[in-house]
Amino acid sequence: MNKQKKPLYYYYFIILLIFVLINTFVLPLFSTKIESVAYNRFMRDAEEEKIDTVEIGDTSIRYTLKEDAGKIYETETMETDTALSERLYASGASFSRIHTKEMNPLLYYFLTLVLPIAFLWWLGNRTFKKMQKKLGDDAMSFGGGFNPMGSFGKSDAKVYVKSQTGKTFKDVAGQEEAKEALVEMVDFLKNPEKYSKIGAQMPKGALLVGPPGTGKTLLAKAVAGEAEVPFFSISGSEFVEMFVGRGAARVRDLFKQAREKAPCIIFIDEIDTIGKKRDTSGIGSNDEREQTLNQLLAEMDGFDGSKGVIILAATNRPESLDPALLRPGRFDRRIPVDLPDLNGREAILKVHARDVKMGTNIDYNAIARATAGASGAELANIINEAALLAVKDDRTIVSQRDLEEAVETVIAGVQRKNAVISSKEKMIVAYHEIGHALVAAKSKHAAPVHKITIVPRTSGALGYTMQISEDETNLISKEEAFTKIMTFTGGRAAEQLIFNSITSGAANDIEQATKIARSMITRLGMSDAFGMTALETLNNPYLGSDTTLSCSAETAAKVDQEVITLIKKAYEEAYRILEEHKSKLHELAKFLYEKETITGEEFMEILNQPSHF
Ligand code: ADP
Ligand code: MG
Ligand code: ZN
User: Over the stretch 281-300, which tens digit does the pLDDT of each residue have?
Assistant: First the structure.
């Protein structure tokens, strides 16, 4: 929704104004003119025999004149004037008495003012409800029961019970630690006595922290499904995005509802949108957000642990949260939700494969090994992409090949089979990729080559060498890091060696190699010159590799020099390896050029054959 959205009452005010204007200025133009006159004027008009017709009502007399029939004169009935009818008879006017029940003024106002307003109100409500429906049915993040007039300041949090999210812990794979922590909380809500007997206090709030797509929102939904208590869910951005000036009121209302429904769970997704560090500079600060945050802090303090209200929140950016939120008594428990490991990835693939018709002997482990670093969301996407590929091929069952292709689609961009590249270019790319693969194969610390392809991707890459380590490793040795740099430089080295010219195809390799070299020197203590000194700190371990240099300018210059030297050394080493195995390089590049995609096994087979050249 739009941030500059005007509050609702603004629109109602405008409608009311238009209505009043119409009533006072436009409507009278269409009705006959009635002129009020004094009684003596009426008597004189009668005496002078000017009167045409007279209607004598209970409280007023209306009459018209002979000479001006379009105009109506009105005067008040005078009870004391008993001779009126005789005088009128004498004047020759036609007169009659009418029992106009004068309209009750209350009824009059009801018909002209209250009814139209009520109608407009109803119309407005209806339109808003429609808009509401269109705006989003994502039940998890968008609240329901929103009534534009009746609920100013009401939170739009939605209450969930078990059946509504349809998710349980079974739907979450590979996040065992997070699940364990949450199971404990669910248990506390179900059996509070068990905990109070010992005197144990549950933390008031828990913060799910981890990179995007790892299943934080999913975990919260699962908690809702398992806990069987009311579950209020709202996304942080809704607090600020909806109607300006209502964020704080919303928080207040959310907690009020929660207190009434306790035991229950409040889930605030993407809490960083409201929980950002408050700006002390005063420039670019956001009053609205600050008020919302202050209200949230106040509400959390107003709880005591025995109330049975647990506050869950999720964020990708824990470092940007206001420290006040993390103080004891607020979100004092952090539940890390990290990227899945090898087993986790396999489990996640299997969870999502339940919804899809899969072939009988699918090797999930192989797919899991090929997707190191992928998030749960990406893995779910791979399964779906594989299913789409099968459909495209008119098959009803997903095969291993579909999965492998889906890995590439999701991780490296969609294959562009019909993109035209010249044969000269294709040749260069083939040598480049074999350069990577050969350097990796001839180094001790490199992961084995799984697949090499020179089919271009939409991501822009013209070729791609996939390496898969045998097993998950969390530690990387200095030698392995150096070998990685060497492998990255292998592509360019092959171009130089064979064509004696270099291309832009190594741009990404250069970036990657530099990144590794830099972190080896500044963060991992893997250089002789600096040893174990942290020269750079990672700003956000989850999003990208934003770093801040924490050393003097001279040291920074020396670091740059070290990086250059390290990469140069790796390049020379790679070049030496390729030179030594030049005949194999030719043979493999030719093979790749013809086949476009070769497997790790094919690669190793040719590599291990006695050379033809
Ligand atoms: P986050 O909130 O951490 O950014 P989500 O919970 O929105 O991530 O995850 C997006 C989708 O990815 C989920 O709906 C689910 O399909 C899939 N997914 C992510 N993590 C997992 C997991 N651990 N197990 C199963 N599916 C997962
Ligand atoms: Mg989320
Ligand atoms: Zn390359």
Answer: 555 556 777 778 888 888 88
Backbone φ and ψ of 207, nearest 5°? -110, 120
DSSP for 110-130 reads IIIIIHHHHHHHHHHHHHHHH
Is the CB–ligand 1 distance for residue 487 below 6 Å?
Answer: no
Give the residue carrying structure tokens 């001006």. Answer: 68
Residue showing tokens 């993390």:
326
553-580 vs 478-499: helix axis angle to the nearest 10?
60
What is the predicted pLDDT for the residue at 306?
67
Active site (catalytic) residues: 433
The DSSP bridge pattern shows strands 449-453 and 333-336 to be unpaired
- How are strands ordered across the β-sheet holding 51-56? 34-36, 72-76, 60-65, 51-56, 94-97
Q: How far apart are alpha carbons 603 and 441 in whole angstroms?
A: 10
Reported as a single tens digit per residue, the pLDDT across 79-115 is: 777 778 888 888 888 888 776 555 677 787 788 788 8
Q: Is the CB of 351 under 6 A from ligand 1?
A: yes
Write out the DSSP string of 315-383: ES-GGGB-GGGGSTTSS-EEEE-PPP-HHHHHHHHHHHHTTS-B-TT--HHHHHHTTTT--HHHHHHHH
Return the best residue to mutate from 138, 169, 214 for the ligand 1 pocket (most ligand atoms within 8 A of CB). Answer: 214
* DSSP string for 409-456: HHHH--B-TT----HHHHHHHHHHHHHHHHHHHTSTTSPPEEEEE---
The pTM of the full predicted model, rounded to 2 decimals, is 0.58
Distance 379 CA to ligand 1 centre (A): 9
Tell me which amino acid residue 171 is: D
